[in-house]
Specification:
With 154 residues, the protein is mainly α. It has a domain of 82 residues: Winged helix-like DNA-binding domain superfamily/Winged helix DNA-binding domain (Arc Repressor Mutant, subunit A, Orthogonal Bundle). It contains five helices and three strands. Strands 1-3-2 form a three-stranded antiparallel β-sheet.
Length: 154
């Protein structure tokens, strides 16, 4: 038979062994949280009826709608935004494409546009009009900032 196995024969020399950081070794790399990035831009909450109406429009109107809601979020929820050429380029849009899309959004009753010669259009996001077959509300098509709720106390 063979001789008994001696563990000391396979032990590493202490000069070759390095200390292991026990705090880091307790949490596997897969479970560590991802490093935090600076706050990334976001698109503000879009009302579902507004998104439904926007989705039915032709061409790039939905992309312009997203650009408008993004600017609204950047402006801390202000529903009146200026849509400059720089903002349009970020969404891959040209001035002419945006002009046509704003016209379509305006026809659908989703926005109100103030146009001035040589300046970027000033756009106000409106509440969407009621879909066909539903009761038309008095606030549809009005700027959200001017929508009031009247309560009868009598």
């Amino acid at each position: 038979m063979s001789a008994a196995f001696d563990v000391r024969t396979i032990r590493l020399q202490s000069a070759l062994v390095t200390k292991v950081d026990t705090a880091a070794s307790k949490t596997p790399i897969e479970q560590r949280p991802a490093p935090r990035r600076a706050q990334e831009p976001f698109i503000n909450r879009i009302p579902l009826p507004w998104a439904h109406a926007m989705a039915r429009l032709p061409g790039r109107a939905s992309v312009v709608g997203l650009a408008l809601w993004y600017r609204s979020g950047v402006m801390k929820g202000d529903r009146t935004v200026v849509l400059s050429s720089k903002n349009l380029r970020g969404f891959g849009l040209t001035r002419n494409t945006a002009r046509r899309a704003l016209r379509d959004l305006e026809k659908a009753g989703l926005v109100s546009v103030e146009r001035h010669s040589g300046r970027a259009p000033r756009v106000t996001l409106l509440e969407p009009p009621a879909p066909p077959g539903e009761r038309a509300d008095a606030t549809a098509g009005a700027p959200v900032t001017q929508t009031l709720a009247w309560v009868s106390l009598g």
